[in-house]
Automatic annotation (TrEMBL):
It comes from Nicotiana tabacum (Common tobacco). This is Phosphoinositide phosphatase SAC8-like. It holds the Pfam family Syja_N. GO terms for molecular function: phosphatidylinositol-4-phosphate phosphatase activity. One of its GO terms (biological process) is phosphatidylinositol dephosphorylation. The lineage of its organism: Eukaryota, Viridiplantae, Streptophyta, Embryophyta, Tracheophyta. PANTHER family: PHOSPHATIDYLINOSITIDE PHOSPHATASE SAC1 (PTHR45662), PHOSPHOINOSITIDE PHOSPHATASE SAC8 (PTHR45662:SF10). GO terms for cellular component: endoplasmic reticulum. Residues 130-456 form the SAC domain. InterPro entries: SAC_dom.
């Protein structure tokens, strides 16, 4: 529906919905306007608009829901994804923003035809993936506006664009459920179609010498190469990179609004890092004739969208990272339109030398000032445009990248507050401890959320963002997160990757086509306890027999035998590491 807001007509989604369950159908209607809604057949998933029809009798169950995230068809029938709880987390440009707290799939497959034994195995696996999808973290939306577009892009659009349905306003790169919305779009259910953004949304209120300001931090995760930490690295042949995120820092002060954009993304080469039980698996660069074109396509897209680009590479210059960094530098330096800056973060800022990040800023400060930020006044007249963007990367584009981006965001925020008169020319946000703590906490929380979506754990180096130095507590937390990442990456992320490939449409389910699900190979969660038991048992017996080895020759020989068996088991486990680890079954790496 369309409503008036600040004399500007804009489209608003139905925000309070009722789910009615009947023996043959589900009915979803708006409580604000009960004649608005649609039904979904429980037998085959067919969707029909209500068109004012209220004569369905008494439902067996009625519940409140907060949105429909879309539909997906599997082998046995259709499933509809509902938002079952939400939380208001702030507002974007005056419009309330909500976080999805829980989701649930409803199955509409009671009339499904018989499945073959192979199809039953596939369907069981797909259903397991839907349960993984239900717990997807970091999903946000608004009923009253699109949140996938940054402020500068919004202001460059033609007047009247906000009167379009919200899904038509959205940037498809950042719509997490784009593939799930197709049936709702085909049935013209515009008032029920919610584009979900995956990423992070944080807000804070600054006092600033009794001149209040509001700051929002919005990170938008691209869906073009969606995936988990170890199973989505680098770029695909189209130039889309893993963990590509646009982050907007939005400031509102006395009616003025300013926006500062940064982007991050995996090194845009063809490369992989396959888990094999090693703590740090080897990086493998895939040498391909298309590599120069891949890099060119990636940066051409950035130049078209953001203007000038500075590519800041934070990776190590030694070991595997060094080889990857060198290959990246070789390719990117062929592009005259992109400036490449290499900064070995661990070498320069390690050992509590975080202040050395100023060395990076000194290299890019001139271009950083030229890029600027976007600024509009109280009448929405454009006072300044952001003319370029800094693209940061490390290996994961999580920890080092987040520390660097928070530092650059602080520099930009100081410039904006000084220009607007909130701070004098010799003041900065760090001089106001309460406000600075709010700013740093937002960046820590944002880093955690992005890390959870990609790696499954909180970010590392959180205390560098929060305190500007490494602390003992932070080191312990980093160690625990690193161990958690190791376990998740080796023994769970294959399934998480498949869930993302299924929900994004990268893997399509086709009834009657040969199965493409790879059921062969070791099941990681089944073989992990066995391998662990053999190793722990062998080490225990070996330790006991060694302690008793001095008593007689037989015991000594037993200890040698046990040690040999244990070493053999360890060698077998290591040699078969890639088979033991959790691997995606649905799609290849590129």
């Amino acid at each position: 529906m369309e409503i008036e807001a600040n004399s500007i007509q804009h489209f608003k989604l139905w925000s309070q919905l009722e789910l009615q369950e009947f023996s043959d159908k589900f009915v979803i209607r708006s409580t604000e306007s009960p004649i608005e809604g649609f039904s979904v057949s429980r037998f085959d998933g067919t969707i029909e608009k209500l068109n004012g029809d209220m004569s369905f009798g008494n439902p067996s169950k009625v519940s409140t829901i907060y949105g429909v995230a879309g539909t997906i068809r599997l082998l046995a029938g259709s499933h509809i994804l509902l938002i079952t709880s939400r939380k208001e987390v702030g507002n974007y440009l005056g419009f309330p923003v909500f976080r999805v707290m829980s989701m649930k799939f409803l199955s509409c497959n009671e009339a499904s035809t018989r499945l073959t034994s192979e199809e039953k195995k596939d369907e069981a696996y797909f259903m397991n993936l839907l349960r993984v999808v239900e717990s997807t973290p970091g999903l946000y939306y608004s009923y009253e506006t699109d949140i996938t577009l940054n402020l500068q892009r919004r202001c460059n659009l033609a007047k009247g664009w906000m009167s379009k349905p919200v899904w038509k306003q959205a940037d498809p790169r950042f719509v997490w459920n784009k593939n799930l919305l197709e049936e709702l779009i085909e049935n013209k259910l515009d008032g029920f179609i919610i584009p979900l953004l995956q990423g992070s949304f944080q807000t804070g209120h600054l006092k600033l010498k009794e001149s209040p300001a509001t700051i929002a931090l919005i990170s938008r995760r691209c869906t073009r190469r969606l995936g988990t930490r170890m199973w989505r690295r680098g770029a695909n042949l189209e130039g889309d990179t893993a963990n590509f995120i646009e982050t907007e820092q939005l400031l509102e002060f006395e009616g003025f609004r300013s926006s500062f954009l940064q982007v991050r993304g995996s090194i845009p080469l063809l490369w992989e890092q396959i888990v094999d039980l090693s703590y740090k698996p080897r990086l493998n660069i895939i040498y391909h004739g298309e590599t120069p074109k891949v890099v060119e396509r990636h940066f051409h897209d950035l130049l078209q969208r953001y203007g000038d680009v500075i590519a800041v590479d934070l990776t190590n210059k030694l070991g595997d990272e060094g080889l990857l960094s060198s290959a990246y530098a070789t390719e990117i330096q062929k592009l005259s339109s992109v400036r490449y800056v290499s900064f070995d973060f661990h070498h320069c800022c390690g050992g509590s030398n975080f202040e050395n990040i100023q060395l990076l800023f000194d290299q890019i400060s001139e271009d950083f000032e030229k890029h600027g930020y976007f600024l509009i006044d109280t009448e929405e007249q454009i006072l300044a445009k952001q003319r370029g963007v800094i693209r940061s990367n490390c290996i994961d584009c999580l920890d080092r990248t987040n520390v660097t981006q928070s530092y650059l965001a602080q520099k930009s925020l100081n410039s904006q507050l000084q220009r607007l008169g909130a701070l004098s020319s010799n003041e900065c946000i760090s001089m106001f401890s309460e406000d600075f703590e709010i700013f740093r906490t937002m960046w820590v929380d944002q880093g955690d959320e992005i890390s959870l979506e990609y790696s499954g754990t909180h970010a590392l180096k959180r205390d560098l963002v929060r305190y500007g130095k490494q602390t003992m507590t932070g080191l312990i937390q980093d160690g625990m997160s690193a161990l958690s990442r190791y376990f998740l990456n080796n023994f769970q992320d294959g399934v998480r990757q498949d869930a993302m490939d299924l929900i994004s449409g990268r893997y399509s389910v086709n009834r009657g086509s040969p199965s493409r699900v790879q059921h062969s190979g070791l099941e990681s969660l089944s073989y992990l306890p066995v391998a662990s038991a053999l190793l722990i048992g062998g080490l225990t017996v070996t330790t006991i027999t060694i302690n008793q080895a001095g008593r007689n020759t037989n015991t000594y020989l037993s200890s040698v035998l046990c040690a040999g068996v244990t070493a053999g088991v360890m060698a077998i486990v290591k040699a078969n590491g890639r088979q033991i680890c959790s691997r995606p079954r649905l799609c290849g790496l590129l």
